[in-house]
Amino acid sequence: MFSKLIYLITFLSLLSCGLKVGEKSESELVVENTSSACLDESFETLARMFKSEVYQSNEDRKISHSLNCISQLIRDFTRHVHGAQPDSFTAEEVTYFINQNLLKNKTALSNTFIKEIFKLKVALLGGSPTALTKTELVYLQKVIHQLTPGIIELNRYMPIINQKWHHQDLSSKVKEAEFGASNKAFITLIKETSILFKGEYDLNNLTSLLTELKNANWISLVDYNSYVHSLISFKQLFTANSSPRLGINDLHQLMPLTARIYFHYLQYKNFLEPLKYEDPQYALNALKFLPDTKNTLHEILLLNTKGYISSEHILQAYMSVFDVLKTESPLSSHSIEVLLKILWSNVLNPPENRLQQSVLPGLNRLAIDRLYEYISELFLSDHLTSRLFLAQSYYEQKEIIQELLRQAELTPVPEQKKTYYDIISMINSPAPLTFDSYFLKILNSSSSAYTYHALQLSNLARHAARIVTQSYAHTFKTVENTETLTSQLSLLELEMAFNQFKNILVELDLLTANTSTFMSSRFEEANLFIARSDGNQWMSFHEAHDLALHLISGTLRAQKIRPFIVANCLSSLKTSVKSTDVVDEECLLNTYYQHSEGFEFLPQHSLFKILTPPDQVKEYFKNLLISGGYVTNNQKKVLMEDADRFTHVVQYIEMIFTLYDLNQDGIIIKDEALKAFPIFKGLIKKAVASIDEDSVKESELPGVFIYFLKYGRAPDGIFEKLHFKWFISNERNWSIESTRYELGAVFKSLAEY
Q1: Whole-number Å distance between alpha carbons of 80 and 23
Q2: Taking CA atoms, which of 288, 652, 709, 739 is between 20 and 30 Å from 505?
């Protein structure tokens, strides 16, 4: 359709040499044009060029010949043809000529169609939307002459531009060189073309033009208004000018800018989309293209009269895209507004501005630079990491730390040196946090083996922790400490972050609306159940990193088991499942018992299920559900939100056994429990307070911890309380052998306080 439209605009003047159109004495006369024999061939050649069918170098002469033919026809027509007015032609005269001479036996064009083309003609040639003058035709001939070399140069790159590029056999170096040359040729031609535009165009006229193109069977669009509305929205996005008119300056500036944006899209399609994120080349390619993308965004701001892109215009453009695609946005317009406010006030706002209560007006230069910093640092981490895996596919934890240290010492670049040391800090953990298929491997035979993908996820978690800290820390000192990975956040700071995002998470069905303890629960988990938990009242940088990895894995595990829950426990007619849906408790427990999907790479969890009586396994599962938030009820119905947390709790149990079951026999004994006690001391104090045992001494708290591990709950009744006092005060009583079953009971008991 685009090529046909170009032809029609270009050949408005091809009214055949010697023809008298509109003369009063011969108003019906049609003179055959003997000079237009090459016209059909020219159309065909240019059409093939747009289809990337004549891009071989030996076909350039055909394109040159076609453009020359068009130029000659314009020249002949300008010299010899006259309408009712000696120096101009009306739309009716042009319509009559095209139908009689160019289309002949083909579908005739309407006067309305040509009138719409005349409006579009004004943008290129200037003048009036009601007439085509010979002066304009002379200028058109000049335009064709000036653009011919650029069009011929561009011909060889049309497969890249049309996304028909077969580059599978090209080396990376040759591929990038070809793409760079095509980028240069395309943008150069667009710049040269934009400079030649002499008029303006009202985008609202596109609705009528598209209607006429549909009537002429050139396009098959149905909803023209959505396309036009989208174009106007993006014009406003770039310029901050609400007018739908494209002025001369708009055309001169927007055309090259749009060409650059299109080539960024082609960069993604050719160099990133074909690769998986886990491919080492992905990070390298992203690093190569990010600077140009940032520069293009800066150029957009220069074009924008406000110097920034407002939330209103971003929202309009965003929603218009989904209107064109006829699909629903995953987020409502209100949630998009909220998300944009979060970006301008916190995430993309430099910490020094944020702490001074300064909010960005929209997407400005500071926001772009901040976004670029975040993304480029992530891909730099991935790229440096990928170098380690050129020689081998995985490293044991000690091996990779040694190799990272070696690389850090070798590099002369301070930024790279710091990145290596940051990676080391993240993986130098008491328990390796390794992955397979996005699932944490805990107590697995290859738990200590790091792959590139595992380090990518670690890099992602590290950068997420940094972004959250820099976006929500209440003091600049905390922000500064992210550079040394020593920062820590309070529950209050994390609650602030969560409250900003809560409604968005609810809309995405990741939470239910009545969730009130989400962040406090995650805060407690970070301090108790992960590799570097310290039990204090802060979330350290390392705890945030480790928690993020647990959340990624636990969430994906929950997604994998969900279809089996739906198949077993919900109506077969149900097409989608929400967090607010409920399932039968017994059915859910049976599903967990019968299926291993979602619990891969947790071999000790699977072994426990095999070696333990079924009734105890299901009781253990129920206790984990309760510890994850499930509130038992008479109907025995479990929210899917609570069911989704089950996989997270399973991971925490397995991590506790990784850290404290020193001989890995699946049993926690006294000495192993005492090693864990300092982490859980604060929680034990809360439990003691809740059972009204004020007489418990500080020295007896380890005994309380052992008591819970042995009996799975707090004492109940006078005799149990007497036994409790005797037990905690005599260390010789602290003989325990707690399995996962007992630990599950402890989790349940502590969750109820």
Answers
A1: 13
A2: 652
Give the DSSP per-residue string, 668-692.
Answer: B-HHHHHHHHHHHHHHHHHHHHHTT
Handedness of CA 153, 159, 162, 163 (dihedral sign): negative
The crossing angle, in degrees rounded to 10, of helices 248-267 and 224-239 is 100
Collect all residues with Cβ–Cβ distance below 8 Å to 34 and sequence separation of at least 6. 17
The first and second tokens of residue 592, run together, are: 């967990």
3-state secondary structure of 738: strand
Q: Which amino acid is at 115?
A: K
Cα 105 from Cα 653, distance rounded (Å): 80
Q: Interior CA angle at 607 toward 590 and 613, to 5°?
A: 50
Tokens of 730: 């005599």
C-alpha 31: how far from chain center: 60
Residue 173 token pair? 């170096």
Q: pLDDT band for position 692 (50/70/90)?
A: low
254, 203 in Cβ contact below 8 A? Answer: no
Q: CA nearest 200: which of 118, 304, 122?
A: 122
> In whole angstroms, what is the distance from residue 541 CA to residue 549 CA?
13
What mean pLDDT do residues 491-520 have?
Answer: 93
Question: pLDDT > 90: what percent of the chain?
Answer: 71
Q: pLDDT tens digits, residue range 600-639?
A: 999 999 999 999 999 999 999 999 999 999 999 999 999 9
Tokens of 176: 């990038």
E runs forming strands in 438-506: 439-441, 449-451, 488-489
**Dihedral angle over CA of 316, 322, 324, 326, nearest 10:** -140
* Amino acid found at 344: W
Count of other CB atoms within 10 angstroms of residue 376:
15
Please identify which residue in the block is written with the tokens 């003609």.
121
Contacts (Cβ under 8 Å, ≥6 apart) of 163 = 266, 269
* 3-state DSSP assignment of residue 168: coil
Distance CA 487, CA 478 (A): 5
Residue 234: pLDDT band (50, 70, 90) is very high
Q: Are 454 and 433 in contact (CB under 8 A)?
A: yes
- Residues forming a β-bridge with 584: 637
CA separation for the pair 220, 279 (Å, rounded): 39
Question: Within 10 A of 492 (CB to CB), how many other CB atoms are there?
Answer: 10
Dmax (CA) for the chain in angstroms is: 124
Q: Where are the alpha helices (DSSP H) in 343-364?
A: 351-355
For residue 174, count other CB atoms closer than 10 A to its CB. Answer: 11
- Output the six-digit token pair for 579: 């967090």
Find all residues with CB under 8 Å of 290, minimum gap 6, and list them: 372, 375, 376, 379
Q: What confidence tier does 693 reach under pLDDT thresholds 50, 70, 90?
A: low
